[in-house]
Amino acid sequence: MTVCLQPDVIFVRAEVLSAHLSAINPSESPTLMSQKIYLAGKLVSKEQAVVSVYDHGLLYGDGIFEGIRVYSKKVFRMKDHIDRLYESALAIRLTIPLTPAEMTRALEETVAANNIVDGYVRLVVTRGAGSLGLDIRRTSNPQVIIIADSISLYPEELYEKGMEIITASTIRNHPGAVSPRIKSLNYLNNILAKIEGTDADCQEALMLNHLGHVAECTGDNIFIVKNGVLKTPPTDAGILEGITRNVVLELAAAEGIPVQETTLIRHDIYVADECFLTGSAAEVIPVNKLDGRVIGGGSPGPITKQLRARFQKYVREA
Ligand SMILES: Cc1ncc(COP(=O)(O)O)c(C=O)c1O
């Protein structure tokens, strides 16, 4: 960890924060020589992008974030991401020091300054520097950090053949503790499940909720197709209301595919005709196996392929 000591303040470089955050969604570490990071109202170099080690975002995961795609220089579903960010802020009683319109402009400027054509943006708002205690009244200056970067997707082979996943023993956060609707900087719940996945040589892991129902994967929402009906858990299953999930639900409805937001158990996935995951980073990715059970024919089904193709077209047009 690169730490600079200055008279009264200790700083940790934003690239260190960025390295921690890249564990949440697979994004390549910054590679652009002239990369500009938005921090505290300015576009600065990576070296200048520093936040205090007393920031509660670092000390406690006390903050919120968004993972956003850029397609053809345009921020995808900007308003949805801004809305979700401000809803997460409201839920954790964090006052973001920018209005939604200012945040929108800051995002657009950061994308343009980094010449991102197709890429990924990580928008982070921390609680700000405080004391070593939990009391948010002792914090000040929430930090807005915007990192625009390239993105590394899952290998193409997984999109063609499907991905194998397992069910993690770690359940998704109880909505009465930290609601999964909050896109909080504290992703330990998901990281613990992801470790179980990678230990089993799987890139994703399914998480159940406290009732044993299907919730979502560590960084993606889950869908199945059964007898021509597209099904996904409802938001009250304790999931992040994914922006890609909502786009896929809209596209499916427009394609005339019947859609149900309904409670699912693992058995429903084992016996599904098709299964796929959605997320800003992964887009629409087929699943061919859960816990060693082959799903459908073991390769991406027709509705999965149709929605993936429709999604690919939509992101270029939107
Ligand atoms: C836990 C979790 N669920 C679902 C998603 C997918 O959400 P979105 O489509 O908004 O990227 C993510 C994405 O980061 C996530 O972290």
Could you name the CATH class of the largest domain? Alpha Beta
State the shape: globular
CATH fold annotation of the largest domain: D-amino Acid Aminotransferase, Chain A, domain 2
Whole-number average pLDDT? Answer: 91
Beta-strand content bin: 25-35%
Ligand types? pyridoxal-5'-phosphate
**What is the H-and-E element order?**
EEHEEEHEEHHEEHEHEEEEHEHEEEH
Radius of gyration: 20 Å
Structure summarized in a few sentences:
With 318 residues, the chain is an alpha+beta fold. The protein has nine helices and 18 strands.
Write the layout of secondary structure elements.
Layout: E1 3-5, E2 10-13, H1 14-21, E3 36-39, E4 42-45, E5 50-52, H2 56-60, E6 63-71, E7 74-75, H3 78-91, H4 100-113, E8 119-126, E9 144-149, H5 156-161, E10 163-167, H6 188-199, E11 204-208, E12 214-217, E13 221-226, E14 229-232, H7 243-254, E15 259-261, H8 266-270, E16 274-279, E17 283-290, E18 293-294, H9 302-317
Parallel strand pairs: 10-11, 10-17, 14-15
Antiparallel strand pairs: 1-2, 2-5, 3-4, 3-9, 6-7, 6-8, 8-9, 11-12, 13-14, 13-16, 16-17, 17-18
Bound molecules: pyridoxal-5'-phosphate.
